[in-house]
Every structure is written in C-alpha cells, then in structure tokens.
Design goal:
Two copies of one chain form a homodimer. By secondary structure, the first copy, chain A, is an alpha/beta fold. Chain A contains eleven helices and 17 strands. The first copy, chain A, folds into two domains: 145 residues, D-serine dehydratase-like domain (Lyase, Ornithine Decarboxylase, Chain A, domain 1); 193 residues, TIM Barrel (Alpha-Beta Barrel), CATH 3.20.20.
Chain lengths: 389, 389
C-alpha cells in the first residue's frame, strides 16, 4: 500500500502493475502556471486538494508552507489539519451530522469554512455555533450557471440567510463554482464563463453588503475558468483542483496539452487479439476508473491515451475498453497497432485525474526533468493519498 | 477507515455519510440461490471474490470454510492465503513480473492457478516453473464469445500451448468467461450463452485431451450464465462474482430483482433545487463510482435507484447526476419529487456492485431479516475490504 522502495522497485520497470505515477516536473510546471496567473489577477489562490489528496503533493502548492486549501471531505480536512494546515474551506454543502467534526477542528484552532445554500442549513449552523460557543465560519454557495447547488445571486432568500449567519457570528462570505465551464470549448467561451462566475459572486456579495452584512470572502473557481479569467475585480480568492495533474478532459478543452498531464497509470501488456485489433493489458477500470469524461468531447479518448514508459504518447493508440482488471487498447485513425510484446509496460493518461487518482492508494513519483530514462524513469518518492470520508 | 462501532454509529443513522452498506440477509439468499443451482447442475462453485473483496463476506460462501475462490489480483490471493484459503484461481492473464509472487504463494502450500492465452506466456511460465523447481498450475483462457481475451477453442495453437505447459508439469485445464452474456436480455438468450460457454470450454478441453494432454479443470462462468445454465456436462466448476450483491445491471437483465440488491450506499440530502427538480446529496461518484452500466440497457437507471434507510425503493426517484462529492436525484415517469428535508438519509442502489464497492474501505453490515428498523437498521458488523494490487 505504501511500499518502501525496494531496490527492484526504484524505477518504473519495478513495481507490480497497475500503479499510479506522478511526474513531479509536469506538476510543478502546472502549479507555477496557475500561481503566476493568480498573482497577475491579484487574487489569493486556494487550491482544491481533492484531486491529489496528498500531503506531499500539497507541499508543492505553497512552497512547502501549509497555505490555504479547499477540501472535499472532512477526512481531508482532518488530515490536512493534522499536518499543520490552518486555513481550509470544505466546499460541499453541510449536513447536520457533520457539524461535530467541523466544530472539533475549529476548537483545534483550524479555520474551517463550511458551505450552505438554504435557510434550513443556516439555522442549524447558527444553532450549533451558539450551543458550542464558537463561530462556525460559513459561506453561502452561489449558483452562477445552473450546474449544481447554490442560490442564484438574485435569490430573494439570500440576505435572510446572510442575516441568520451574521447574527450567530458565522457569516464569512460567498463561494461559486463554474461547473458548466467544463463544457466550454473555446478560450473566449471560458473567458466569458469566468466573467459570469465573477459577476455572480460579486453580485451576491454586493447584495449581502447592501443589507449591512459584512462579506470577507468572495471565492470563485474551476480549472477552466481559473485559466481563462481576465479580470477578477471584487473576487478575493480563486479555487482550482484538477490543474495540478491536468487530464484529457482539460486537454480536450484546450486548457492544457497532453504533454502537461502529470498523472498516468503504468500497466503491462498481457495479451493480443490481432483478429480484433486489440492489445490487452492488466489495467482495467479498477486502475483507471469508469470515468469517460471525453465521451462528450469532439475527440473521445476512450479510457485514455497510451504512452510509453517515459511518458511519450504513442500516436493513435487508445484504451478503448475496460473490465475490472483488463484494459483493451486499439489503434485509431488508421494507425498501425504497434508491436508490444507481453510484459511491455505502458503509461495510460486518464480522462479525469480526480477519478483515476481515487482508484489508487498513492503515487510513485518520477521527475520528467531528469532527462534520459534508461531503462525506465527512476522512482524518487511514494506519496500516499488520503481516502474515505 | 475500519471504525470501531461507537454507540452513536450502531445503526444506519449514525456513521458519517457516504458509506457502503451490505444487507447480509439478501446476500445469504443470493449465495444460497446459486449454490443450489450449482448443486443441481452437479458442478463445483468457485465464487469470484473480486466483487466484495472481503474475508468476512467470503466466509458466507462455503459455510465458513475456506473453499475454492477466484481472485482478480495478487493482493486478493495473498489476503485469502493469509486467511487459510488454499484453492485459488487468479483469473487475469499472467505477466512475467508477477510470477515471483505466484511462486511464493505456491511455496506456502497454496494452490494458485494462473491464466494465459499465448505460447509466449506458456514458455515463460514453464521456464519459471523449471527454474523454481515447482509446478505452476496454469489454465488456458478460452474465448467463447469474442468478449475479451482467450484463444478460440479451434485455435491452431491450442495444443501446442497445452504441450509446453504439460511438459513443465503446469497444465491444469481451461477457463472461459461469457462476458457478452451481460448484454443478453432474455432468459433464453442467457441459456444459449451458457450452452455456448460450456461448449467452448468442453471443446477446448477435448482438443487438449485428444492430443494426449490431461485436463483437470474445465471452468466456466459469469453471473448471467451461471443463473441460466441448464446442462453443464463436461464442466468441472462454475464461477460467478456479482451474484453475492447483485446490482441494477443484473436486475435490468432480469437475473435478479431490485429487492435482491445487497449493496447500497447511504447518503444524506444536503440541498434542493426545486427550479430544476433536483435533490442534492453528499454521495457523488466518489461514493458510487462512475459506472453507468445501465446506460446501455432498455431502462437507464442513472447512477442508481434511491431507497429509504430501510432499503425500500422510493418509486420514480433516480440518481441522475454525480460530481465528486455531490449526487443529484430527480423524479422520472411523472413521479412527484418527494419531500426529503436536509439531513434525510437515503440508500442508493448501484449499477455495478463491483465498481461501487471498490470506492469504499469496507461495509457496514445490516440484516434485513431483522424486521422493523426504527429508528434505522442496526449495524451488526463492519467488514473491511482488500484493496490494491
């Protein structure tokens, strides 16, 4: 699970397959790119750690310091708190039974902001805060594009929710997420989605302030809009998650290129079915996830593009089928099926980094900047993942 | 991860959501049903433990004895060997680098059969067996329906592969899997698929025997064909996995009914979007998996059907959307969206039990035979899962 690196496992030809690999060189580049953008835009960056779910990966986000992060589970919040992080946002609508764990973290001195979008939630949060004698910082979720949860910025109930929170000392601000930006295929459409995301958050904050309610945080973000925003006036912080690894969905949108993908899964060829044009591997959906995010994109990438062990994409080779522990590779666009004998190791680049990473206990880490990779890229570290809820 | 059951968590209203639940009453019924069928058909049953991946669940398969099982990973093989199982089949084509772990298990006295479908594999298995001075029992994978791997029973190379294995003391038999039976929607079509599966395995065994090669095991199986087979003459054992839990894909085929589904995921309502007709929960694809197996069936069940906390399906309510930690429920067929306040717990029945179970560290176990469930079904055990490779 968290293997000590035996000598035999010190490069990608070593460990039993399938296993997940992170190219830390690509990851550092992806992190630097968005940090530079946030600096130019004049907003704080609060990366979402739900993608990597790794303290070692998170250490690269803020130059080794435990800076602000977003989490998707209380298990992540607790793991990051244990590691010294003190500035967290739990960006999933709160349920009553989760408040004791939230309050326990607050009592440890962790600023853990929670999210809600209803009067009902504001009332039980306010009641729990009063009962515990502690402020429970809460953000009101704003719906900018009809994607999922949240209140529209013009919703009649918004100031009332703000008032309930404020009166209990719990109002922190507003948060929105442009989930529909994952379906915007041009840079201009994504820029427009980023403006719309900003406008929704800023409008909601303005309505609260107009009602005499102080708003500290105005939080926006998604990987596509974070890389497209041109003006975030009125916004205090930017969130994004997938960008640390990127994936084929993001490459399909044009937010990154395939050479930016930092996560892959090493698999081994275990069979050939030339009569069907198939190469069979030991990496099925258990290793890749069932995510087929590129199926709705102009170029469907199956379960993933296939690279050699150094990370170089093999043109035209796609993982088109998956059962639990079997992957099927086929050639497309008239490409010849390459000669890949049984035992050949390959790296499969995933549709959706969050989903593929979640199939693994951790990552073997290589550094693509270290040049030639004979016989295979060296494994420089193992990064365990946080899991569960 | 493997929580001790605190008093507050002793029924399904207790643990933090989302979490996986197994109804052991339904599971026992499902197990008894297939065992009775195998007995009537006069074949041994070798359940595939890749679905539950749990030693506690497996204890119900053979009345508490460590009987024959099929595994999908060497991690399962090792965990079951550690628990006293001595009769295992690893039903994924072998790669050279996995042989040391196989041989280590054989040396511990575990009969671990491996699978292959090429001359190349037979040669490296024979060489490894000779070098280790140990028989490595191997089965030749037979392709009965073009689903995945294997040799066609009439393949010219079949006897040659058998010969290489036999000469190294490694030939155990043949194995086939009717993967296409997951797309056969009538009992008669599945009966036909079961006959075809049997015929392919028996024909392959016959060709090997005709070449003077002894065949011990003739193994067939898939959950749909195992429940449809009417005559398994010539077959020595039947494999199936999903049947212990069943799922919506199997219900959609008619192999079981929704009331047979033993696995579900408890989620909590965290929001409402009445303008879209949505109820939002804290169970997204991280809890359910991305599996959309029913999407190709006549009745698409989204990410799952929704039941109340006692396991009774709520008519017309379907989980139609999933992001990482959010599920969206909608009403279909003109059903009214039920009143489900924030904090309400629900049980979501999955498309594909293997994929949903894999998203969890283990199962909270309830017994649906224990009648009334106020305030919620009691949790009687926690069963951890084996994971990784």
């Amino acid at each position: 699970m968290s293997p000590a690196l035996s000598p035999a496992a010190r490069n990608l030809a070593g460990p039993g397959t399938p296993f997940a690999v992170v190219d830390v060189h690509r990851m550092r580049r992806n992190i630097a790119r968005l940090r530079a953008r946030a600096d130019r835009l004049g907003v704080a960056l609060r990366p979402h750690v739900k993608t990597a779910k790794s303290l070692d990966a998170a250490a690269l986000l803020h130059d080794g310091r435990p800076g602000p992060v977003t989490v998707s589970t209380l298990a992540e919040a607790e793991a990051f708190a244990d590691a010294g992080y003190r500035d967290l946002t739990y960006a999933v609508g709160i349920a009553p039974h989760k408040l004791p764990r939230v309050i326990a973290l607050l009592r440890r001195g962790v600023t853990l902001r929670i999210l809600l979008d209803s009067t009902e939630q504001a009332m039980f949060v306010a009641a729990a805060a009063r009962e515990a004698g502690i402020a429970v910082p809460a953000q009101i979720e704003i719906d900018c594009d009809g994607h999922r949860g949240g209140l529209r910025p013009e919703a009649p109930g918004l100031p009332g929710i703000g008032r309930i929170l404020h009166d209990a000392g719990c109002l922190d601000g507003v948060l929105t997420h442009a989930g529909e930006s994952y379906f915007r295929y041009t840079a201009e459409e994504r820029r427009e989605a980023a403006r719309n995301e900003r406008d929704a958050a800023v409008a909601a904050a303005g309505r609260l302030r107009a009602a005499g309610l102080p708003v500290t945080t105005v939080s926006v973000g998604s990987t596509p809009t974070a890389h497209a925003a041109d003006d975030l006036t009125g916004v205090t912080e930017l969130r994004a998650g997938t960008y640390v690894f990127f994936d084929l969905v993001m490459a399909g949108l044009g937010v990154c290129g395939p050479a930016d993908l930092a996560l892959s899964v090493v698999v081994t060829v275990i069979g050939h079915r030339p009569e069907h044009g198939w190469i069979v591997t030991d990496g099925g959906w258990m290793a890749m996830s069932r995510d087929r995010g590129t199926a709705v994109q102009p170029q469907d990438q199956g379960y993933g593009l296939v690279a050699d062990l150094t990370g170089t994409v093999i043109p035209g080779l796609v993982m088109t089928g998956a059962s639990q522990e079997h992957g099927t590779l086929t050639a497309r666009d008239g490409a010849a099926l390459p000669e890949l004998p049984i035992g050949t190791r390959l790296r499969v680049l995933p549709n959706h980094a969050c989903a593929t990473a979640a199939q693994h206990h951790g990552y073997h880490v290589v550094d693509g900047a270290h040049g030639d990779a004979a016989p295979a890229p060296a494994i420089e570290a193992y990064w365990p993942r946080v899991s569960g809820w």
